[in-house]
Amino acid sequence: MKMNKLFNFLKSTTLLLFLFSHTAVAETSDATGAATTTTPVPSGSSDVSIPLRYFEQSPDGVVNHRAREEFVQLYNKFKDNEELKGSEVALQRVLAFYAKNKDGIPRSCGGDLDATSSPRGEKLDAVNKIDNQDFILLVDYTKPHVADRFFILDMKSGKVESCPVAHGYGSNSNCPPEHQVRCNGKIKCKITSEVNNRSGGGATSRGFYLTDEGYRSSQNTFNSGSPRSSGHNALNLRGLLGGVNDKALDRSVVFHRASYAENMCSSSAGCPAICPQLFEDYKDKVKRSLMYVHTPEDEEKPQPDC
What we know:
Elements: H1 2-23, E1 26-29, E2 35-39, E3 48-51, E4 56-57, E5 62-63, H2 65-78, H3 88-101, E6 135-140, E7 150-154, E8 160-163, E9 165-166, E10 180-183, E11 186-189, E12 207-215, H4 220-223, E13 234-239, H5 248-251, E14 254-257, E15 273-274, H6 276-282, E16 290-294, H7 296-300
Parallel strand pairs: 6-16, 14-15
Antiparallel strand pairs: 1-2, 2-3, 4-5, 6-7, 7-8, 9-15, 10-11, 12-13, 12-16, 13-14
Helix pairs in contact: 2-3
């Protein structure tokens, strides 16, 4: 009898340890000694350590545990999706920002939250949170042009759809040799080798945005391609980071459809311009949702902005 009790006790303890090892978020330390969280992953997958500082609330540095827990749940929903393979850092950054700021975007981020119209006169409402929490838009410009580097994340189902997206012609300078391609006698960069927030020059701006109201442009590149363009063919973008992308409205950097999105030798004027089909499918579903433009510069940053 005693042996049976001991056996049952050991069996129960082993089961509990197994469950805990597969569900708990362990706190560890990174190379700098800072505490990190290890995202739970299934056996056979590589561990991903998420620094606790991603979720510290300024100025006292207290960790936002609610946001961290939500991040873990969301990351587990998307991390094994084949569409996002190679974009793990970009995925972590956007989900961390979303979990922290979805119900209130801090003024300290310095973004353009108060604009009530675009340069073309479309009426906009002031922003204080991420209104549309059904979808997240992710652009990974560390991947080469023509690759599927634009992603729509369905926050409810975990479904991901993707297609190519063009970057700005002003982001082709200082291109590493391994990413250079010659187009019509000029060097084009497969990735965004340079980003900035300046008016003119056609560069991509990195960071977090909110998509805003749509409008219809008469530009041929906004209307061509299949399927046929109908209704609005672009959405305004509101930059959420001061000094990083807060001039998006002033620069008329918008999210739009473009038949050239899959052409290696074509660039936008700084806009994330995607394949026409996916834009038409989702343009009305993704208004007022979070967009993140991830670049090689972000890849080297120790943590996401804001």
